[in-house]
Amino acid sequence: MRRKKTTGHGIGLFSLALLLCGLMGLGGGVLGARLAQRYQPQQIAQEAPDRPEEQPEESVAEAAPRWHNQVMEGSTEDPGGQAEMPSAPVISIPETINAETEYVLREKDLLSGSAVETSEEIPDMYIGMDREQFVTAMENYAAAPPLSEKERGFVSLEVLSFAPSRVVVQMNYRYVQPSQSFYVVAINDMIVVYLEDRQTVYQYTNIRLSQLPEKLQQEIIGVMHVTGEERLYDFLENYTS
User: Nearest CA to 102 among 147, 28, 160?
Assistant: First the structure.
């Protein structure tokens, strides 16, 4: 009986010792936590290296790059407009005369006002010319017409129309009319025969005034009058070289 009592007492002491240890452990944990809260921040502050002060964050508008702002400003100037596309250069091809161009000559009598048109093949010398070149060629022709044209009474010409398909040129004449008298004059040392109206050229000659006898020269300088075609032809035949 006594041995059992001793055993029960030993178990009770052992349980009491465990309880005290548990209480001491709990108290030590609480005390350690309080000490950690008090001393740990100061220790961390002392051990941590110095850090630069943090800069305040920039706003989104201030942090945006300058080029971005320029693009945004440019895009808001004309939101509804459209970018202008460069226009392609217009290439104009000049109209020129070709081998198929119809060449129309309109001969007009300035005295009567009548006109006659004839269609011919375009001369080879005019093929490939544009309007400006063709007009220049016609002006050169009018400035120095062939002798045959002068004898017909050619006065002037003009280009009435110009197109690759058709060119019209008007030749103006004062046609030689039958005359009973003529006037012989000298122009630039060359003998020229006029009709009796003294305005219409009857014939240009290759006779030079300086090659005629002196007495005849004086008569022509004063405008020599010749009656009838027969006497005129005799004069021209005698002094034509």
Answer: 160
DSSP 8-class letter at 96: B
Identify the pLDDT of residue 101: 95
The model carries a pTM of: 0.43
Nearest to 98 by CA among 53, 130, 57: 130
With a CB cutoff of 8 Å and minimum separation 6, the contacts of 94 are: 130, 131
- φ/ψ of 24, rounded to 5, equals -65, -40
Mean per-residue pLDDT pooled into runs of 10, the chain (241 residues): 48 54 52 51 50 52 51 51 64 85 93 88 94 95 89 90 95 79 93 86 89 92 90 88 65
Q: Which residue type sits at 163?
A: A
Helices (H), 87-228: 131-143, 147-152, 214-221
| pLDDT attached to residue 26 | 47
* Amino acid identity, position 41: P
DSSP state at residue 211: G
Kindly write down the DSSP assignment for every residue of 140-165, as one continuous string. HHHHS--HHHHHHTEEEEEEEEE-SS
* CA distances, 179 to each of 37, 174, 176, 196, 240 (Å): 147, 14, 8, 7, 22
The identity of residue 194, as a single letter, is: Y
Domain ranges of the chain: 102-173, 181-239
Spatial distance between the Cα atoms of 161 and 164, rounded to a whole number of angstroms: 10
